[in-house]
Amino acid sequence: MSSRALPPEGALGKLRSFWTVFSSDRAAVVGLAIFLAILFIAIFADLIAPYSPYERVGRPYERPSLKHLLGTNDIGQDIFSELIYGARASLFIGFLAAITGTAIGTLVGIAAGYYGGIVDEVLMRIVDIWLSIPSLLFAIFLAAVILRIGGIPMFYSVIFAIALTSWPPVARLVRSATLSIKERPYIESAVALGASPSRIMMKHILPNVAPLVLVEVVVRTAIAMLTEATLSFLGLGDPALKSWGTILHFAMVKNALILGLWWWFLPPGIMIALTVLSVVLIGRGLEAYFNPRLRRQ
Questions:
Q1: Which of 141, 171, 192, 258 is deepest in the core (most CB within 10 A)?
Q2: pTM over 0.70
Q3: Does residue 39 lie in a domain region?
Q4: What is the pLDDT of residues 93-138, one digit of tens each?
Q5: Domain for residue 12, yes or no?
Q6: Could you tell me if residue 16 is inside a domain?
C-alpha cells in the first residue's frame, strides 16, 4: 500500500510513535507546553488583553496594580495589554521570517546538491560569502538600507532582512542531505525512466529532506524572534507594531532602566527568553525523533 493511502490506524500509529519519542524528552514537553500557552495568548489576545494596546487608559508611569497588572508606560498605555498583543506580533514575524528563509535555503541546497558541478560551486561560494558576514550585523545593515530606500512597509522590511540572513546555513545542511539522497537506487531508477530534474527534486528529494527542513524552521523561528527583537530594540522595526522588541525599544528611549521602571522592560525580555527557550527545546525533541542516532544516545 502506498504511503499516500495510509489507513487511519497507520497515521495514528505514526503519531503515537512520534509522541512516544518526543515525550521521552521532558525538556521538549516542557518547551511544548510553554509554547502552546504563548500561542494561545497570541491567538486570543483580543479576549485576554483588558485594554487596547494603543489606547491611553491611565496616568503615565503607573506602578503595577489590580487595574493595570504591569503598570503603564510613558503615555498611559497598559503594558500588560501591550505584552499580550506583542506575543502575536513577535510569533508571526518569527514564523514568517523563518519559513521564508528556510524555503530559500532548501531550494538552493537541493539545486546545489542535485546538479553538482558548476552550479554547486557557484551556489556554495555564495553561501560561504554570506556566512562570512555576521548575520545580526548583516540583518541590521539590510534593515537600515531598506528603510533608507523606502517603498516597502517596515513590517515586511524586517521579515525580508531576517530571511535574507537565515537561509545560508539551511542551504548547506540540505545540500549535504541531497548529496546522499541522490545516490540512492530509486533516484537512479527515476533518472533512467526519464524523469525531469525538477520532478526528481520536488517528488523524491524534497520529501526526504522534509524532516530536516521542519527542524530548521523551528530553530530558525527562535533565531528570527531574537533578531526581530534586536532590530526593533535598535529602532529598525515598525514603531506602530506592538512587538516585544518594540516595547523594549520605547522602554530604552524613555530611560525605563535608569528610572527603575522594571515593569516596563523586564516582562517583554522574559517573554522573549521563554519563547525562544521553548522553541529550542521543541526543536531538540523533533531532532531526536527524526535522527535515530540521537534517539539511541
A1: 171
A2: yes
A3: yes
A4: 999 999 999 999 999 999 999 998 999 999 999 999 999 988 888 8
A5: no
A6: no
